[in-house]
Specification:
By secondary structure, the protein is α/β, with parallel strands linked by helices. It has one domain: NAD(P)-binding Rossmann-like Domain (Rossmann fold, 3-Layer(aba) Sandwich), CATH 3.40.50.720. It is 47% helix and 16% strand. The protein is built from 11 helices and 7 strands. A 7-stranded parallel β-sheet has the order 3-2-1-4-5-6-7, sandwiched between helices. Helix 1 packs across helix 10. The longest helix has 21 residues. The chain is globular and about 55 Å long. The termini are far apart. The model has no long low-confidence stretch (mean pLDDT 96). It binds nicotinamide-adenine-dinucleotide. The site of nicotinamide-adenine-dinucleotide (NAD) has 30 residues, from helix 1, helix 4 and helix 9.
């Protein structure tokens, strides 16, 4: 049976078919063509089937966010399906899942590859969203290093001395610097490549959101997370749907004047750290 006879549908591409990404695209993918990209064939099959059974038009493609060519092919595939109006990037790994090098290569360089690739195919009026993290606010990256991150091409980011020395010290530092870099990478794209295509791009920085990735964090550092959650104003974890709500706003028409910025959605964790209610240990 053919559920949707519309041939020319707007395209929404999701890189990282995980919990938060899927919640975000469900908000406005009805009547549009979804393209899912992920390194995990299993995730692609499970999430793709679930979306299809819920009435969405879905194609899937195995993509390795660490590989510029693979990400470029994903963007080209999206463009071949129709006007690419939306791009969401949630491919990432957390501190307790990976080495510092892997985190920096995936969460910073891989994100850069995606921003660059979709900066070549976005349709006029389109919008992008990169999921960064509250951790991007947890350490002050020196101003001159931030300027280097902005001015350095994506494939050379790992050569910045601060990245090679300070950020590589442990997975916590690597994650913080990678997620701060995402804010800067998105600012740069909003002002340059995405601007040229008349498309907007923003980041969201979630706090602790209960997803499979977060369960890996709780298993490795549950006590530290519990103390952080207890010190926050919200005194609870967040849900992917709460991030999706904000994501749908930032991607949607009511956010037409918002580009190159970040929305921190953390239940007040960063406020607690800034005001001395919680002392952060970077491991
Ligand atoms: N869950 C949280 O508490 C939290 C908080 C702040 C930020 N984040 C960030 O949000 C994003 C999404 O996280 P989530 O919690 O939805 O996790 P998730 O594990 O559900 O989703 C991440 C997805 O990225 C995919 N992925 C991993 N490596 C990849 C690669 N090389 N190429 C392509 N895909 C790859 C995974 O297969 C997975 O489907 C991540 O960037 C994460 O760092 C999560």
């Amino acid at each position: 049976m053919i559920f949707d006879r519309n041939e020319k549908k707007e395209v929404i591409a999701l890189l990282g078919a995980g919990s938060m990404g899927t919640s975000i695209i469900r908000r406005f993918a009805a009547g549009r063509q979804i393209l899912l990209g992920d390194i995990s064939e299993k995730n692609l099959e499970t999430v793709g089937d679930d979306l299809k059974r819920s009435g969405y038009s879905v194609e899937t493609m195995r993509v390795d966010a660490l590989d510029r060519a693979s990400v470029g092919a994903f963007a080209e595939k999206a463009a071949s399906l129709g006007d690419v109006m939306y791009f969401v990037d949630t491919a990432g790994a957390s501190p307790n899942q990976s080495s510092p090098e892997h985190i920096l290569k995936l969460d910073m360089v891989g994100t850069g590859y995606a921003i660059d690739a979709f900066g070549k195919v976005m349709a006029r009026g389109g919008a992008g969203l990169v999921v960064s993290s509250q951790t991007g606010y947890m350490m002050q990256v020196p101003y001159e290093v931030e300027q280097q991150i902005i001015s350095t091409p994506t494939e050379k980011l790992m050569e910045i001395p601060y990245i090679k020395e300070t950020a590589m010290q442990n997975s916590g530092a690597a994650y913080i610097v990678a997620k701060r870099a995402n804010h800067l990478q998105v600012q740069k794209a909003a002002a340059t490549s995405w601007r040229q295509r008349r498309a907007r791009i923003n980041t969201i920085s979630p706090g602790v959101i209960v997803t499979p990735l977060a369960y890996d964090e709780f298993a490795a550092a549950g006590d530290a997370y519990q103390t952080m959650i207890d010190a926050s104003a919200a005194m609870r974890t967040g849900a992917s749907d709460e991030i999706a709500e904000a994501g749908a706003f930032l991607l949607g028409e009511h956010a037409g004047f918002i580009t190159g910025t970040d929305l921190l959605i953390d239940g007040g964790t960063i406020a607690a750290i800034r005001c001395g209610q919680y002392k952060l240990e970077i491991r």
